[in-house]
C-alpha cells in the first residue's frame, strides 16, 4: 500500500494516564512517528512523562516528544482521546458514560481550534458512547472519528482460541463485533485457522470447540473486569491495539480492524457507533464490511446496538 502523504508523522495524546502512556511507550519502541504530543489536565504529569520517554531516545528511532497545551494538536494526523475517569471494580463501561461525556464535550472543540481535520481516535470508556459524542460535537466526517472499538476484544478472542488449539494466534482469524462491552458478539461463524473454517479444523485435529464456546465468550467479555480486580486497570493490551490502528492509518495499510464507527445502514443499523470489521487507512475508515452473519449473531448484534442506543438516549444524544 502507498504510505500516508505526510512525511512528518505526528500523534497527539490527550490523557497521560496508564492507557495513554502505555500507547506512547509502545509508539517510541515501534518508531511509528516523528513527533508525539502529550496533553494532560495536570500539566506537570504530561511534562514528567515527556521527560521520562525522552530519556530513552538514544536507544530508539529519532523523534520529538513534547508536553504542552492543545496547540500540540496542530499538524497531528491522529489525535487520541485517552482522558477520562477510570472504570472502577464492578462498574460497567456504560456506567462511566455520564462522567466522561462532559470531558469529551470539553476536549473536542479545543482540538479543532488547532487542527480542523484530524483523525480522532477515541479510547476512553464507554468508548462507543464517547465516539458518538465526539462525532456529533466535532462535525467531522464519520470516517475520521473512530474508536479502538473491539480490536482488543478480538485480540482476546484470538488469544483464547490459539491457547485451546495450541497454534500461533497470528494464524487464528476471527472477530468480536458490536459494543466494546457486555453485549459484544463473538462471530463464531466466521472463525478460521490458517484459512480453514473452524468446524473443518476441529474435524481435522479431533478437538471440538463446542463445549468451550460459552466459557471462551465469557472469558473475552469479562477479561477487563478480571484484570481490574487483580491490578486495578488494563493498559498494555489496549496500548498495542492502539498501535495497530495507528500503523494502519499512518502507513495507509487498508487493514481490516474492528474499530468503532458510525453505522450507516449496515445490518439495518443507523445512528449508533459500534464495531464491525472495517478497512482502515490514511483517511480513517475507508469501508465497513457487513458480511453475512449467522441468525443468532445478527440478532445479538442488533441487541447490542439497541443497548447502545438506549445509553445514548439516556445522555441526550
Measured as a percent range, the helix fraction is 40-55%
Round the Cα radius of gyration to an integer and report it. 19 Å
The fold-level CATH name of the largest domain is L-2-Hydroxyisocaproate Dehydrogenase, Chain A, domain 2
Shape-level CATH architecture of the largest domain:
Alpha-Beta Complex
The strand line-up of the biggest sheet is: 3-2-1-4-5-6
Number of helices: 9
Uncertain parts: 1-5
Task: Give the secondary structure arrangement, pairings included.
Blueprint: E1 10-14, H1 18-30, E2 35-39, H2 43-54, E3 64-67, E4 78-81, H3 97-114, E5 119-122, H4 127-138, E6 145-147, H5 151-165, E7 172-173, E8 176-177, E9 185-186, E10 192-193, E11 196-197, H6 198-205, H7 213-231, H8 236-250, E12 255-257, E13 260-264, E14 270-275, E15 278-281, E16 284-288, H9 295-314
Parallel strand pairs: 1-2, 1-4, 2-3, 4-5, 5-6
Antiparallel strand pairs: 7-10, 8-9, 10-11, 12-15, 13-14, 15-16
Binding site for beta-D-fructose 1,6-bisphosphate: 158, 173
Protein name: L-lactate dehydrogenase
Modified residues (Phosphotyrosine): 225
From the structure above, extract its key features.
42% helix, globular, 317 residues, Rossmann fold, L-2-Hydroxyisocaproate Dehydrogenase, Chain A, domain 2, allosteric enzyme, NAD(P)-bd_dom_sf, six-stranded parallel sheet, 9 helices, phosphoprotein, 2 domains, disordered N terminus, cytoplasm, alpha/beta
Amino acid at each position: 500500500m502507498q504510505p500516508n502523504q505526510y512525511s512528518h508523522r505526528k500523534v497527539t495524546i490527550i490523557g497521560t494516564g496508564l492507557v495513554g502512556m502505555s500507547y506512547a511507550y509502545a509508539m517510541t519502541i515501534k518508531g511509528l512517528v516523528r513527533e508525539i504530543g502529550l496533553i494532560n489536565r495536570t500539566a506537570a504529569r504530561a511534562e514528567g512523562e515527556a521527560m521520562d520517554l525522552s530519556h530513552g531516545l538514544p536507544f530508539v528511532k529519532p523523534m520529538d516528544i513534547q508536553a504542552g497545551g492543545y496547540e500540540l494538536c496542530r499538524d497531528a494526523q491522529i489525535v487520541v482521546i485517552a482522558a477520562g475517569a477510570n472504570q472502577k471494580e464492578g462498574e460497567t463501561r456504560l456506567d462511566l458514560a455520564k462522567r466522561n461525556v462532559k470531558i469529551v464535550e470539553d476536549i473536542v472543540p479545543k482540538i479543532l481550534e488547532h487542527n480542523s481535520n484530524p483523525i480522532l481516535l477515541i479510547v476512553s470508556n464507554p468508548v462507543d458512547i464517547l465516539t458518538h459524542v465526539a462525532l456529533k460535537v466535532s462535525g467531522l466526517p464519520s470516517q475520521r472519528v473512530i474508536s479502538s472499538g473491539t480490536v482488543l476484544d478480538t485480540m482476546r478472542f484470538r488469544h483464547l482460541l490459539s491457547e485451546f488449539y495450541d497454534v500461533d494466534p497470528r494464524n487464528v482469524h476471527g472477530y468480536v463485533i458490536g459494543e466494546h462491552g457486555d453485549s459484544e458478539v463473538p462471530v463464531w461463524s466466521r472463525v478460521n485457522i490458517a484459512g480453514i473454517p473452524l468446524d473443518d479444523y476441529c474435524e481435522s485435529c479431533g478437538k471440538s470447540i463446542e463445549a468451550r464456546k460459552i466459557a471462551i465468550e465469557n472469558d473475552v467479555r469479562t477479561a477487563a473486569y478480571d484484570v481490574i480486580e487483580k491490578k486495578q486497570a488494563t493498559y498494555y493490551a489496549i496500548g498495542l491495539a492502539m498501535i495497530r490502528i495507528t500503523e494502519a492509518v499512518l502507513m495507509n495499510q487498508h487493514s481490516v480492524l474492528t474499530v468503532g464507527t458510525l453505522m450507516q445502514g449496515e445490518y439495518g443499523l443507523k445512528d449508533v457507533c459500534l464495531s464491525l470489521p472495517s478497512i482502515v487507512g490514511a483517511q480513517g475508515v475507508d469501508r465497513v464490511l457487513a458480511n453475512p452473519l449467522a441468525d443468532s449473531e445478527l440478532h445479538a448484534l442488533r441487541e447490542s446496538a439497541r443497548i447502545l442506543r438506549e445509553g445514548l438516549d439516556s445522555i441526550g444524544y
